[in-house]
Design a protein that fits this description.
With 1521 residues, this protein is α+β, with helices and mostly antiparallel strands. The protein folds into 7 domains: 1-112, no CATH class; 150-337, Histidine kinase-like ATPase, C-terminal domain (Heat Shock Protein 90, 2-Layer Sandwich), CATH 3.30.565; 340-488, Ribosomal Protein S5, domain 2 (2-Layer Sandwich), CATH 3.30.230.10; 499-574 and 583-669 and 676-692 and 699-765, Rossmann fold (3-Layer(aba) Sandwich), CATH 3.40.50.670; 954-1018 and 1040-1090, Gyrase A, domain 2; 1117-1213 and 1221-1262, Orthogonal Bundle (Topoisomerase, domain 3), CATH 1.10.268.10; 1321-1520, no CATH class. The protein is built from 49 helices and 47 strands. The strands form 13 sheets. Strands 3, 4, 5, 6, 7, 8, 9, 10 and 11 form a 9-stranded mixed β-sheet that branches. A hairpin with a 6-residue loop joins strand 21 and strand 22 (657-659). Helix 28 (712-720) runs parallel beside helix 30 (751-770) and helix 35 (925-936) runs antiparallel to helix 45 (1265-1300). It is elongated and about 155 Å long. It starts with a helix and ends in a 6-residue tail after the last helix. 35% of the residues are buried. Mean pLDDT is 77; it is low at 1-86, 1026-1046, 1184-1220 and 1326-1521.
């Protein structure tokens, strides 16, 4: 039995239209009932306080319960609580039966009208008085206050009012709505001049149409769901409900077409009706007027009270605001509202602190306004087809989706340190007004408080303009600021809770912490915690602590750099590093410390490397303490740093000199360079434990106390606050090069000095690593890599792993292999969107556009070399004129290379440094070549636009962009194939194939990305051993809740097919809607933006500059390039002049020696030098060291290649050189000539070379630098032609291979036989038996035939005992290989070995003997403990623990090999004299033995191994032991 069956038990009889309530009551009882209802509502006041303007909580269950208490007295008996909806129905039936009620009296059927009157909640809401916070019309404005009203009477009025408004949608010429609320007479009338109701008799129902629609239930003109309507009516109740709950209901209709006026009166809750009065009507205007007298007694009312009138008046103003073209009047007073925006202003009239309201008419069907909510809770006033949806619905969610998303992005951008702000959190700070027209709307009930229609059925979309969204996001709105402020408040509260149990403790257990013995005790203030940079530094600190004692000193290693905690509250809570420090020190968030007695340590000592990164770590620790506990920094002696040398110099037995800063060392070296050995201490790990003990033994000289100063507060914020990025730019620009801190022996250091003299050096170095140079377009890591490749003359391919080591060694690279690996790979990549000119050659898998290069192979698998075009870009003749950087005491890469064209525009860049970031697109090198030629000729440069090698799409200027600077649109390529199908053959720049597949999956199945993200988080959490944070709540989703995937709420893609390769794009997509109805470029993201607004670079002087246009950048580059061409010409001229003099002097010298004018034998060195001076031979000191190196290369070229020669010459230059005095150095080129060159033939050759050099010199002097530049541009253009030809050849190769390939798919796998299926089913999966491998051995050839037969039989027996039925498929496969197997190998898994055989590394090789074995083969199963156990075991003798030696008899037939399939051990066949059938298992703890190599005639390669493993095995076969 259901509750509904019990609802009719209070009525036993009566007329069909007699009111059930009137029958059972007497007149005096009604006021008492009303009074009791008021008292009941008063008891629910606390619940009413929870109501807001957006949620009119009708408390249906409560009202239903009370209704049953008042109306069901006959049913319920004395026990009033038994009538509750939650009581057992059967108890009520039993109670009624005891009172003598019959079954017919208990189970009743009601007519619909009686049921509506008896149970009105479903149709009009509660008929009991209740109190709620609502908007009402009062004092000529909208007021939000507590209202006492009856929802039912409010609803019947709303039905009539909305019906009048619906006429506006049916009849566009409708002009007015007139509403009269007569409090004295107790009636309400609503009049509109819309299209009149036809005054004629309905042919089916035989009554007039007005009577049909106003006097009969379930009648409506809205039952055709195929018709698109923008009205509020739907179910056929509407105005009839007002008739039913009225004592009198008058319908008056004027129809100008039939010229009739219709008037009819209904009474007694629509049960009684008068005959319609039809008169003549001559006016041209139709109208409909409804007048009704609500049955006040039924609603517990005596009259229209003030609250009800205020609430009904508000609804009249709603209609006026939603229909601004209508003249709406209330009690004959026109309201004068001509727009929805003006209506919204009624909510904020003349308030000083009124929030700014942002309004936009999105379309003819959507109007939207947003403002800040003062109550920090979501408020909404919304209308659907003039219906006031007090609880919102899907229309509010949809209208706000784009706005909430934009606010979310903005807030998360400014609040990066905290958890992502959810849409529901943002909505709590908004007040929104929505007025919309929805096709055929669906509501949660007849009360129409909530819209439930799907967004796809709205018939229109609400997409606010970007201008409107920007206004909402503007700081003046206060919305973003309010959300940020509240989010930060929550974060601070969470921080305080995270350390609520912290404070001073005895012992703490944290991994890697070496706690001081007295930490956390009474003497904790005397204890010092040493924070070190890594584990190796902690080892050094531990060694030092052994000197000063462990009672007062503890050590804890940091994992790299600490988090910048400013604006990072949520990340701080989840940061293990910071939490550990807080726990170790005993700190509490939010506590203001005035003494150190509450902490576990009274001092915090920072011990980091003395390099730039070490300075940064110090600064981050200072920043953390300053942000959370600033008073600690003011306490002298709390924060301390420990300094160690960065450089030490040694000389003979003198005491080493230590330097604690690089500028300090460089200054010393200017005057003390000779005879000193230099050792660089780049990290604390360079120091030995002994040196660590020395440092701590002199602790007072190695520690520096930080001291608070007046500017400390501002300087710390300057260095670490995100809001002061512009100030940091100025801070770095004002730094004077060469400024450094005097550290050793200094007792105190102010925070301002640390920030401005030490930390600033890190910020500058960070920018140098991250931002490229305008001259060569390279960052420091790229430049070091290119320098090393040029130095090595890298024309042969080497592994990237090898190159990483070479770069680290020869260019003093200090930042780890992973960083250098990404640099090298990035310089070699050539897929679309990477490099226009790749300077390194990608030999191997360097990544593709499938994953944007992330799918590259490991450094040990890929090779590289210098690309041929590299030297066309960076000409070798420019190398000698470049100034080099000194690092680790040696010259390394130049400050910048000087390319032929501005490479900064060729390959572009993306980089983020301290205070600066840079983003430069790629451009066509041919455009740059053309512009350089124009600049040479003195002509203006042509504008260029971004260009990407291999990109097939278009790049166009964004004409509508308001961004300062250039902006371009990168567009992919798509083509319509049919009405619901199109293909994509190119993606915009920066969109990779895998990313695009994920987008298509999302468009096909919305929510896919979210599910993948959740799965990823769960996996990450499982690896960490923690629970993944839920991304969704378990509560039921409300219709006004935001969806995380609002942007993709419905499927757009039906299916798609991917034909893309590693270099091409090809998707064929089938859509649900026709292609023409979809904005393909927007929905499928086929357009991306490319900006020229952040082109930041270092100039040639090391200053950071921002360029507004590419033209300005080229104009800056060109004069610099011309200057260096002049420098190149001067250098080459000087070198040719030197060569000319050298050759001339050599010829004179040899002639003088040959003619005996100069005697060089048995002459003192001093006399010889004086003689050379007397003969006026030129002193030539070799300034151009590169020249001698090249000469050596040329001499050695025949012996080995250029790369080896370059390395060799470099080693010779770096080797020890003989010290010479100045006089000898000048004539060394003469005195070092070999004796065999002192001939006349040599003189002749030297004179020819001299004349050739003179000619070359003259040509150089006569060639203008502009001509030299043009030659280089021609050479580069030729190299680009070769690059284009290479790209074209790759395309042609793919096409030709496609045509050549005949097989499109592999042949299908063949079905297995029924016998195999049966055997497989019979063999239990848990007892897999490995195939037995037999190695037949040879014995004496004179063995008798009987013995041979016996041996064969024994072998067969042995085989059968060790071979399972599940090896039959293997046997059948191998049977094809050995057509004539010998008895010794019968039923074994032996495979013929020929030249084409491929097999695994774990094999047993055996040779078939000339004669059968003398002894029976025995099977031994060896443990697979090591793969190194091999055939050598057969040489160990006949002992069971040592297999017999392999027969040396040469094989008569091809050797066979036994493969090991899915087994964990190896099987060997040996001879055994004691037993023919015994199977022996060798012990698993047998010592590993080296593998015996196979016979030379059986050399083979494992098909599954790669070459590297092969070479490694060959080179280190002995290592297997």
């Amino acid at each position: 039995m259901s509750d509904s069956e019990n609802d009719y038990s209070d009525e036993s009889s009566g007329s069909e239209y007699e009111s059930p309530v009137k029958k059972g009551k007497s007149a005096p009882k009604k006021p008492a009932a009303a009074g009791s209802k008021k008292k009941a509502s008063a008891t629910r006041k606390p619940a009413a306080k929870k109501a807001t303007t957006t949620t009119t909580s009708t408390t249906k269950k409560s009202t239903t319960s009370k209704k049953s208490e008042s109306d069901n007295d006959d049913f319920s008996g004395d026990d009033k609580s038994s009538s509750s909806d939650n009581e057992n129905v059967f108890k009520n039936i039993a109670s009624s039966a005891k009172k003598g009620k019959s079954i017919e009296e208990i189970y009743q059927k009601k007519e619909l009208l009686d049921q509506i009157l008896l149970r009105p909640d479903t149709y009009i809401g509660s008929t009991e008085r209740q109190e709620e916070e609502l908007w009402v019309w009062e004092d000529k404005r909208m007021v939000h206050r507590k209202v006492s009203f009856v929802p039912g009477i409010y609803k019947i009025f709303d039905e009539i009012l909305v019906n009048a408004a619906d006429n506006k949608q049916r009849e566009g010429n409708m002009k007015f709505i007139k509403v009269v609320i007569d409090r004295e007479k107790g009636f309400i009338s609503v009049t509109n001049d819309g299209a009149g109701i036809p005054i004629q008799v309905h042919s089916e129902h035989k009554i007039y149409i007005p009577e049909l629609i106003f006097g009969n239930l379930l009648t409506s003109s809205h039952y055709d769901d195929s018709e698109k309507r923008l009205t509020g009516g739907r179910n056929g109740f509407g105005a009839k409900l007002a008739n039913i709950f009225s004592t009198k209901f008058i319908v008056e209709c004027a129809d100008s077409k039939s010229k009739k006026l219709y008037k009819q009166t209904f009474t007694n809750n629509m049960r009684s009706k008068e005959d319609p009065k039809i008169t003549s009507y001559q006016n041209k205007t139709d109208y409909t007027k409804i007048t009704f007298y609500p049955e006040l007694d039924r609603f517990g009312m005596v009259e229209f009270d003030d609250d009800l009138v205020a609430l009904l008046s508000k609804r009249v103003y709603d209609i006026a605001g939603c229909n601004p073209t209508l003249k709406v009047s209330l009690n004959d007073e026109e309201l004068g509202i001509r727009s929805f925006e003006k209506y919204i202003n009624l909510y904020f009239p003349d308030e000083e602190n009124a929030p700014k309201v942002y309004y936009e008419k999105v379309s003819d069907r959507w109007e939207l306004a947003v403002t800040l909510s003062k109550e920090s809770q979501f408020n909404q006033v919304s209308f659907v087809n003039s219906i006031c949806t007090v609880k919102g619905g899907t229309h509010v969610t949809h209208a706000l989706s784009n706005i909430v998303t934009a606010i979310q992005e903005q807030v998360n951008k400014k609040n990066k340190g905290s958890a992502d702000i959810k849409p529901a959190f943002i909505k709590n700070h908004l007040s929104v007004f929505v007025n919309c027209l929805i096709e055929n709307p669906h509501f949660d009930s007849q009360t129409k408080e909530t819209l439930t229609s799907k967004i796809s059925s709205f018939g229109s979309r609400c997409e606010p303009s970007e201008k409107f969204i920007k206004r909402v996001l503007d700081s003046k709105s206060g919305i973003v600021a309010s959300i940020l402020e509240f989010a930060q408040f929550k974060d601070q509260s969470a921080l305080k809770r995270s350390t609520s149990s912290g404070g001073k403790k005895g012992k703490v257990s944290i991994p890697k912490l070496d706690d001081a013995n007295l930490a956390g005790g009474t003497k904790s203030e005397d204890c010092t915690l040493i924070l070190t940079e890594g584990d190796s530094a902690k080892s050094l600190a531990t060694a030092g602590i052994s000197v000063v004692g462990k009672d007062h000193y503890g050590a804890f290693p940091l994992k790299g750099k600490l988090l910048n905690v400013r604006d990072q509250s949520t990340k701080v809570i989840n940061n293990d590093e910071i939490n550990n420090i807080v726990t170790i020190l005993g700190l509490k968030y939010g506590k203001v410390y005035e003494t150190l007695s509450d902490l576990r340590y009274g001092h915090l000592m920072i011990m980091t490397d003395q390099d730039h990164d070490g300075s940064h770590i110090k600064g981050l620790i200072i920043n953390m303490v300053h942000h959370f506990w600033p008073t600690l920094l003011r306490m002298p002696g709390f924060l301390v740093e420990f300094i160690t040398p960065i450089v030490k110099v040694f000389k003979n037995n003198q005491k080493p000199i230590s330097f604690y800063t690089m500028p300090e060392f460089l200054k010393w070296r200017e005057t003390n360079d000779k005879g000193w050995d230099v050792k660089y201490y780049k990290g604390l790990g360079t120091s030995t434990p002994g040196e660590g003990k020395e440092y701590f033994s002199d602790l007072e000289r190695h520690k520096i106390d930080f001291e608070w100063d007046e500017g400390a507060n501002d300087n710390i914020e300057l260095a670490f606050s995100k809001s002061r990025a512009d100030d940091r730019k100025k801070w770095m620009a004002e730094h004077i090069e060469g400024t450094f801190l005097e550290q050793f022996g200094v007792k105190k250091l102010t925070y301002s000095d640390f920030i401005n003299k030490e930390l600033v050096l890190f910020s500058i170095a960070d920018c140098e690593r991250s931002i490229p140079n305008i001259v060569d377009g390279l960052k420091t890591s790229h430049r070091k890599t290119l320098y090393s490749c040029f130095k090595r003359n890298l024309k042969k391919e080497i592994k990237v792993a090898q190159l990483i080591g070479y770069v680290s060694e020869h260019s003093a690279y200090h930042h780890g292999e992973a960083s250098l690996y990404s640099t090298i790979v990035g310089m070699a990549q050539e897929f679309v969107g990477s490099n226009n000119i790749n300077l390194l050659n990608p030999a191997g898998s360097y990544g593709t556009r499938i994953a944007g290069g992330k799918d590259c192979s490991s450094a040990r698998y890929i090779h590289t070399r210098l690309n041929d075009i590299a030297r066309a870009v960076y000409h070798a003749d420019d190398d000698p004129i470049l100034s080099c950087v000194v690092d680790d005491g040696k010259k390394v890469q130049p400050k910048f290379y000087i390319p032929v064209i501005p490479m900064i525009l060729v390959n572009g860049c993306v980089g983020i440094g301290t205070g600066w970031s840079s983003t430069i697109p790629n451009y066509n090198p041919r455009d740059l070549i053309q512009n350089m030629r124009l600049a040479i000729d003195g002509k203006p440069l042509k504008p260029i636009k971004p260009w990407y090698r291999g990109f097939l799409g278009s790049i166009e200027a964004n004409q509508g962009s308001k961004v300062q600077g250039g902006q371009y649109l990168s567009k992919g390529i798509w083509k319509k194939l049919s009405d619901n199908r199109f293909e994509i053959t190119e993606l915009p720049i920066g969109f990779w194939t895998q990313d695009y597949r994920e987008l298509l999956d999302e468009l096909e199945t919305p929510g896919t990305r979210k599910k993948k993200k959740e799965e990823k988080e769960k996996k990450a959490a499982s690896r960490k051993g923690t629970k993944a944070k839920p991304t969704t709540t378990k509560r039921s989703k409300r219709v006004d809740d935001d969806d995380d995937n609002e942007k993709v709420t419905e499927a757009t893609v039906k299916s798609y097919t991917n034909y893309s390769s590693e270099s091409t794009i090809h998707f064929i997509i089938d859509t649900i809607q026709p292609v023409d109805e979809i904005n393909i470029e927007k929905v499928f993201k086929l357009v991306s933006t490319i900006n020229e607004t952040n082109m930041v670079v270092f100039d040639e002087e090391g200053r950071i500059q921002r360029f507004a246009t590419t033209t300005a950048l080229q104009e800056h580059f060109f004069p610099l390039r011309i200057k260096h061409y002049q420098m190149r010409k001067d250098f080459l001229s000087e070198r040719l002049s030197e060569e000319y003099s050298r050759l001339s002097n050599k010829a004179r010298f040899i002639l003088a020696v040959v003619n005996k004018e100069l005697v060089i034998s048995n002459v003192k060195k001093v006399d010889l030098i004086n003689k050379l001076k007397e003969m006026k031979f030129d002193r030539i000191i070799n300034k151009n060291s590169n020249k001698s190196a090249r000469d050596k290369i040329k001499k050695k070229k025949n012996a080995f290649d250029e790369e080896d020669a370059a390395i060799s010459s470099d080693e010779e230059k770096d080797g020890a050189q003989e010290e010479q005095d100045d006089d000898t150095k000048g004539y060394d080129y003469l005195l070092s000539l070999p004796l065999w060159s002192l001939t006349l033939e040599r003189v002749k050759k030297l004179i020819e070379e001299r004349d050739s050099k003179k000619k070359e010199w003259d040509i150089l002097l006569s060639t203008p630098i502009q001509e030299i530049y043009k030659r280089d541009l021609d050479a580069l253009e030729k190299a680009l032609d070769d690059q284009d030809a290479y790209d074209e050849s790759l395309k042609n190769q793919t096409e030709s291979l496609k045509k050549r390939t005949k097989t499109k798919a592999l042949p299908r796998a063949k079905k297995i036989s029924a016998k195999v299926v049966k055997d497989t089913k019979e063999a239990p999966l848990t007892k897999l038996v490995k195939p037995t491998v037999k190695i037949p051995t040879t014995t004496d050839s004179n063995v008798s035939g009987s013995k041979r037969k016996k041996s064969d039989d024994t072998t067969s027996t042995s085989t059968s005992t060790t071979t399972s039925s599940n090896t039959k498929p293997i046997e059948s496969f191998f049977a094809k290989e050995d057509k004539k197997p010998t008895p010794a190998v019968k039923k074994s898994t032996l495979v013929s070995l020929d030249s084409d055989s491929d097999f695994d590394d774990d094999v047993v090789v055996s040779s078939k003997p000339k004669a059968p074995p003398k002894k029976t083969s025995k099977v031994i199963e060896l443990s697979d403990e090591s793969d190194q156990e091999s055939d050598q075991e057969s040489d160990q003798g006949s002992d069971p623990e040592s297999p017999p030696k392999r027969s040396k008899a040469p094989p008569k037939k091809p050797t066979t090999i036994a493969t090991k399939k899915a087994t964990t051990s190896k099987s060997k066949v040996i001879d055994d004299k004691s037993s023919d059938d015994e199977v022996i298992k060798a012990p698993t703890n047998r010592p590993t033995r080296s593998r015996v190599p196979p016979p030379k005639s059986l050399s083979f390669l494992d098909s599954d191994s790669d070459d590297d493993d092969l070479y490694d095995n060959e080179e280190s076969s002995s290592d297997s032991d």
